[in-house]
Write a structure and sequence with these properties.
Helix content: 40-55%
Number of strands: 2
Distance between the termini: 27 Å
Strand order of the largest sheet: 1-2
Radius of gyration: 16 Å
Mean pLDDT: 77
Largest sheet: 2 strands, parallel
Length: 115
């Protein structure tokens, strides 16, 4: 592993004393997870969003998720990525401990990712 994972770990290590960092990970696994400082909070999204992070091989093990993701991709083509993310947001649990400012930042981040 390398590239973006290593860059993220380096960034988190450099910024951890200045900011309260929470990482949103699709899955709590991987060789770089042990490199994340213990005081960094790690959260995972609900199953609806986790589906987006699954590889084709992982999806083939779960035919229902494979079908749902295929439907979501078609929905995205018909409408937009933003509307697809809003649709997934209906099924997403709310993160506990999020301050109103943090929710605003997460909303702004999700809008940037959706564009």
């Amino acid at each position: 592993m390398g590239g973006i994972q290593k860059s993220l770990v380096n960034f988190v290590k450099a910024a951890k004393g200045q900011y309260d960092i929470t990482l949103l990970l699709f899955s709590k696994c991987g060789s770089r997870l042990k490199d994340i400082p213990e005081d960094v909070k790690i959260i995972t999204p609900g199953k609806a969003y986790c589906m987006l992070g699954l590889t084709k091989q992982e999806l083939k093990k779960h035919p229902v998720l494979f079908f749902l993701k295929a439907c979501l991709m078609q929905y995205t083509k018909l409408f937009s990525r933003r509307s697809a993310m809003k649709l997934l947001g209906i099924f997403q649990k709310k993160f506990s401990g999020c301050e109103p400012d943090n929710r605003l930042q997460m909303t702004q981040l999700s809008k940037l990712l959706a564009e």
